[in-house]
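task queued by scheduler; priority normal; single chain, no ligands, no partner chains; default sampling; output format set to C-alpha cells
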Amino acid sequence: MKRLLLVVFFVLQAACAGVPPDQAKDAQTGPVASAEDFRVVAGSGWKGHLSYLDYSSEALTKIPVELQVDEPHGRTLRYSIRYPGEAQHNAREKIKLSRDGRKLNGGLIIARERNDNGDLILVTTYQGEDDNRPADIRVTYTIGSTAFSISKEVRIQGESDYFLRNQYSLVR
C-alpha cells in the first residue's frame, strides 16, 4: 500500500507539473542547472537573429535581434530583447530555475552536456500547446561567452517528429 501511494504521488506530481509520468523519476535524479551556469552570458553586445516558423506562409523567417542579459539574481536570469526597426516588439524576458535546479521555466532538464567549443547545452522538455494544439515542447539553451542560443522545437500530439518553432541565435 505504501509503495502504491508513492507511485500515485509521483504520477500526480508529474501531471501537475506538466511533466510526462515516465519522466517523474528523472525529475528526482536528472541533470541540474544553476544561475552560475548563465553568468557567462551576462552583459551587452549580443547580436544575431530570431528565426521562427511563420504559420501563415509556412516559411522560416529571420529578423535581426539584439540582447542584453542582466547578471543572474537568485534563481532568475532576466534579459532584454531589442528588434532593430521593430521597437513595438521589444520585450523583457526571464529564465527561472526551480529550487532544485532540475527545471528551467517549468521545463524538466533532460540533458546537460558540453559541445566541442566548451559551451554548455541544456535541454528541457514539457507539455504545452502550439498553434492551439497539444504538443511536446523541447527547449535547448546553448550557453557560452561568445555564443548564446535558445531553440524551441515542437512535436504536435500524435506526430513523431519535432520541428523548429523558433530560435534566438546570438554572438558577441
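post-processing summary
- The longest helix spans residues 2-17.
- The first strand starts at residue 43 and ends at 54.
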